[in-house]
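Practice problem: predict the structure.
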Amino acid sequence: MQTTTSPASVRSSESLTNPQRLLSLDAFRGLTVAGMILVNNAGDWQYVYAPLKHAAWNGWTPTDLIFPFFLFIVGVSITFALAGGQEHTNVIGKILKRSFTLFMLGLFLAFFPKFDITTVRIPGVLQRIALVYLACSLIYLRTTTRQQTWLLAALLVGYWLVMTVVPVPGVGYANLEPTTNLAAWLDRTVLTTDHLYRSTKVWDPEGLLSTIPAIGTGLAGVLVGTWLRRRDVADADKIAWLFTVGCLTTLGGLIWDAWFPINKALWTSSYVLLAAGLAMLGLALCYWLIDAQPALRPTARRIAQPFVAFGVNAITVFFLSGLIPRILNMIHIQQPDGSEIGAREWLYQLFFVPYFTNLHNASLAGALTFVLIWLVILWIMYRKHIIIKV
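Answer:
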């Protein structure tokens, strides 16, 4: 990880951007990461409002959109970060290094604090981000926009056919049930049950086969990023087309749901279209408000700055927000009855539970407080122009 500090004389929020960087993209990324932290850090997991939980299987909630939004943003960011990258001989090495770093950070979170190699979960959120970034970066550097479009279509249609036509070994027929689908079989066969998501045991929501359509989510972002970078198209036309394509893509996902159900755990092709379409609409709105409207720009940018603070240090805050609760849980505090609880639980019981009659509200307040604490930290880093690059 690398820390960079901008010159102290540069004070405006624009100092963290350059001609090839969109403030609206940073804001959209920050909003997404703040959502990740919120849904991953409930005060009490027994009391969580339905929109802040994942769908049990088929279907979706707002929480199910957060991770694909981030992968979509990874794709968009690639087109800005690697613009002209074909001319640099060391760009492939940098891509490989960053992918490896992201993957190892994810493994570290899985290892910590037990560091038990026999039961460590190998897949994970950061690991999937690493693989999607690696694949989409190389595809972007080596293919044309037309080829990327056809590849995206091939990935989604191919995954649909594989999941709905290929018989599952040991089962005898193709199916989309939680424990007997082809993706679950592949996870158990290659990774074994000791290295999968501990809440499911026999399949992983960031498993091997479902990484293929997740790459499709990143490619959708690459195509949008290429469109936004065009200098021969007016901002108004970019936004109009982005809204139009976003609506059509969302509709396509909802229609495909009838044959290939929207499902985050399987990362179904219909889910890719739904999430990518909604991400296009979200990014188009941010772009219109923050980057394309001179009259609204000053106010919109002031309002967006807290989210930009999250966005410019997105991986850093995601990693640390997963690590710190684990560290707090290692600190045991004795209760009056002689029992012991972790420091995280103790803080929640001390500062939130006594002040809420509705425990769902207490749990939500705990999660929101965690987000606000990180906002203060990230805001200080943002004002000091400190960006930790992975």
